[in-house]
Write a structure and sequence with these properties.
- The protein is of the alpha/beta class.
- The protein has 8 helices and 22 strands.
- It has 2 domains: 173 residues, 3-Layer(bba) Sandwich (FAD/NAD(P)-binding domain), CATH 3.50.50; 149 residues, 2-Layer Sandwich (D-Amino Acid Oxidase, Chain A, domain 2), CATH 3.30.9.
- The strands form 4 sheets. Strands 6, 7, 8, 15, 16, 17, 18, 19 and 20 form a 9-stranded mixed β-sheet that branches. The chain has a 6-stranded mixed β-sheet with strand order 10-3-2-14-22-21, with helices on one face. A 4-stranded mixed β-sheet has the order 1-13-12-11.
- The radius of gyration is 21 Å and the shape is elongated.
């Protein structure tokens, strides 16, 4: 098979891979993106895509800083990317209102709030009902946290916009499955595809999401990422719009692990969410999950009883065992860089710039030490950090 050449090969055309391709091609580097399916067909096409510092990113502090900086940058750049590409990425700014549905959860909200380093208000139970009068007393809200700093994008459309601009800047997208890496001594020299092609390159960016563990054998370093599936319902509600992102903690309603309702525009709302281990890219929704989300949403917001369930959105998030993303160079193979884990949508622009700066040997203004792939070389510890599960694994399907 003929050999192609590039400066950089990006493996994976989700929102992270397309972000890397956008910033790398902007530097006039020759970029080839390999995607086994279609642009944005993986997790990026199913992500809720809220931009903001939700409380489950507040600890550890380095994850908090990563999520905050990533969200801020994507909020700044998303409107510019939309204007440049001509693709509406669904960017809207609105407040984030976190509700505590138990006394223990309310204590945790108050404990975590100062770590956000954001402007926020802590609201009593009564103040929560005044802030959103449609909340039901039956929901037993113990208190809440109001943050004016949040936004939303359509992750799929933002992925398409980044891919479009990368292509206009010269990046080439190929529908190919990466099958391995070519070594030349201690550094990478290319990428092999499943169809036998070889693409010579100086650098490789692995933006492979839930498929990242497959690359462990290529680089000789463990890259443990567990797909944690989340399930949400899509509602159409034609009443007065909900003008905030609503999230709830302290939910005891299996198989839900927390609750949220996200306005998508034009009367569409996304509500959930569950979490379960999976071993395939499964986008189905369980009947028990559907019923639990529907029941709890109507319990918290009785007005949603008038809404229609018009679909669902499900997909696995790529979660490393300690809950922190895997970012940076692979020590065992020079020229290979990993961008994997949560919060990928919030940090797609930040991580794209990170790939650019690492490859061009520019200074990084923050420490990568907590996120480096080599932290797993001594073994895997933890259980998915922020997505710690409350139910038994779904098993191998």
């Amino acid at each position: 098979m003929p050999t192609e050449k590039a400066d950089v090969v990006v493996v994976g055309a989700g929102i992270v891979g397309c972000g890397a391709a956008y910033f790398l091609s902007k530097e006039k580097l020759k970029v080839i993106v390999l995607e086994q399916n279609a642009v944005g067909s993986g997790t990026s096409g199913h992500a809720p895509a809220m931009l903001g510092l939700v409380l489950h990113y507040v600890e550890p502090p380095e994850l908090c800083e990563m999520a905050r900086r990533g969200s801020q940058l994507t909020m700044e750049l998303a409107p510019l990317i939309a204007a440049e590409s001509g693709i509406d990425v669904g960017f809207n700014r609105r407040p984030l209102f976190t509700l505590a549905f138990s006394q223990q959860a309310w204590q945790e909200v108050r404990r975590l709030a100062p770590g956000t380093n954001l402007d926020y208000e802590l609201l009593s139970s009564e103040e929560c009902y005044k802030r959103e009068p449609r909340l039901s007393r039956a929901a037993e809200v113990y208190g809440g946290m109001w943050v004016p700093w949040a936004a939303r994008v359509d992750a799929y459309r933002l992925t398409l916009a980044l891919a479009d601009l990368a292509q206009k800047q010269g990046a080439q997208f190929l529908t190919r499955k990466a099958a391995g890496l070519v070594r030349q001594g201690s550094r990478v020299a290319g990428v092999l595809t499943s169809t036998g092609e070889r693409i010579d390159c100086d650098s490789v960016v692995l933006a492979t999401g839930v498929w990242t563990p497959q690359a462990s054998a290529w680089v000789g370093t463990p890259l443990p990422v567990q797909p944690i599936k989340g399930e949400q319902l899509l509602f159409q509600y034609d009443g007065p719009p909900i003008t905030m992102e609503l999230e709830g903690v302290g939910v005891t309603n299996p198989p839900m692990v927390n609750w949220s309702i996200h306005p998508l525009g034009n009367g569409a709302y996304l509500s959930g969410v569950t979490a379960s281990e999976t071993y395939v890219f499964d986008t189905s929704i369980r009947e028990e999950a559907k019923q639990a989300i529907l029941d709890f949403t109507v319990r918290v917001l009785p007005c949603m009883a008038e809404a229609r369930v018009v679909g669902h959105r499900t997909g696995p998030r790529p979660i490393p065992p300690d809950g922190k993303p895997i970012l940076g160079p692979v020590a065992s193979l020079e020229g290979v860089y990993v961008l994997a884990g949560n919060p990928g949508v919030q940090c797609c622009t930040m991580w794209g710039q990170l790939a650019r700066d690492l490859i061009l040997r520019r200074a990084i203004s923050y420490s990568l030490k907590p996120f480096l792939p080599e932290r797993f070389s001594a073994g895997v510890q933890g259980r998915y950090g922020i997505m710690a599960l409350k139910e038994e694994p779904a098993g191998r399907r």
